[in-house]
Amino acid sequence: MIKRGRAEGWLKRPVDAFPTWAEFHGATFNNIRFGPIPGLEHRGSTVIANRDISGKAEEPLMTVPKDLIVSKQNIELFAKADHRLREVLDAIGEFAQTTRGAVLTFLLVQATICCPATKDVGNLSPLTEYIKFLPDELLPTFWTEEELALLTGSTLRPAVRAKLNSLLREFEIFRAATEEIAWCAKYWWDEDNGLLEFDDWMRVDAMYRSRALEFPGVGDCMVPCIDMANHASGEATSALYETDDDGNAVLILRDCKDIPKDGEITITYGDDKGATENIFSYGFLEESVASARAMFLDLEIPDDDPLSPAKKAVCTVAPGFRLYEKGDKTSWESDFVWLVAINEEDGLDFKLRQTVDGQREVQAFWKEHELDDTTRLRSYLEADTLWDVYQLRVVFLLQGRIDAQLHRLQETGNPERVASVRDGPWRLAERLRGLEFTMLDKARSDLEDQVSPPHVAPS
Ligand SMILES: C[S@@+](CC[C@H](N)C(=O)[O-])C[C@H]1O[C@@H](n2cnc3c(N)ncnc32)[C@H](O)[C@@H]1O
């Protein structure tokens, strides 16, 4: 539906029309405009200064009324006036209680309202037009197989695969939950003319992922106008977003910043995010990024571990570890590795318990402690006389996993570029492979230092 709406023009409006739409709904702007910056068109539209602006004595650069914020609370309010939206939110149950679930549903309903093929699908709201101004971001979920293959050996490859699987699952759950609603059956799911496809789910997910911000007092949300600001990190960030005393969203220039006429006004999407996360969520990597910064490596419990099935059954944490930069060193964190590193001889034990409803459940024990939460294992091991030994085992595990990842990256090397691979994915994949290789290599040698006596200690 969304792809068709873009092509046929009923779900697309130019950025030039954006200020009129926003001002009509109560947004105010202070000497700024929206649009691409000549020479930087690949960044899409952004917020641009209409004159020299000084950070010292400025009013907010923009104020967006609180009822224009696409938040879970506001979607609940819109649903009071729109019983079709209410029906869908009720049908999807718990998913509608998450901001993401509510926003994705809301965007799909707005797109359906805009579609000329539908009648009486819902109420026009101030935000019905908003989706028309949102660009289609080339996030990795939209890369082709050839483009994704360029990520082999990087941590982005499994992350995209897992995301696509979970989007597919969500879409099927969404379909099953709404196909009994008469208007959804007719407009969305009809075998011949149904409008909704998996592609639509991917698109609304990408809109939300690339534009959601966390606002004080509101939580995660999309804020039209402020979400036109591009990202710059560190000292290059020129503006901050927050809510004012009335709950409206405001964009304010940082004290120390002066922006020349026609200069770009940027915010930060989070300076601590790693290169992988940036490409995953936003589809770009700032030019100044010189390190992968953080990455998550999955880890498997070896098949030859006789406790493997029981360990998997009781594990309550993500199976892997996070590598991150800490000063000029790398460090790591994981609650999972400890479960991999210990065995029965050390004091790990499992029992089968009958639950009240007659099911059988695996119960884990570390010596006299019941281990119903894997995050507690590390503190138990720390108190053990063999703590040094466990740490060494973990370091060897990490080294082995890092070596395997380095090997995979080496195998991928610098592949030949085929003509169908687009420039953006090509450059991003090449940069990411390089950045992750460098960081893994460094992590390898930092761990090597830890293996040498006296001993190891992640912090
Ligand atoms: C919140 S939107 C910002 C507005 C967006 N440029 C537009 O045209 O609507 C986030 C998206 O803007 C682009 N973007 C933001 N900052 C960027 C940067 N520093 N370099 C390249 N692209 C950037 C990315 O495509 C990202 O997914």
From TrEMBL:
Transmembrane segments: none annotated. PROSITE patterns: SET. Residues 30-270 form the SET domain. Coiled coil: none annotated. One of its GO terms (molecular function) is protein-lysine N-methyltransferase activity. It comes from the Eukaryota. GO terms for cellular component: nucleus. SUPFAM superfamilies: SET domain (SSF82199). This is SET domain-containing protein. It comes from Lophiotrema nucula.
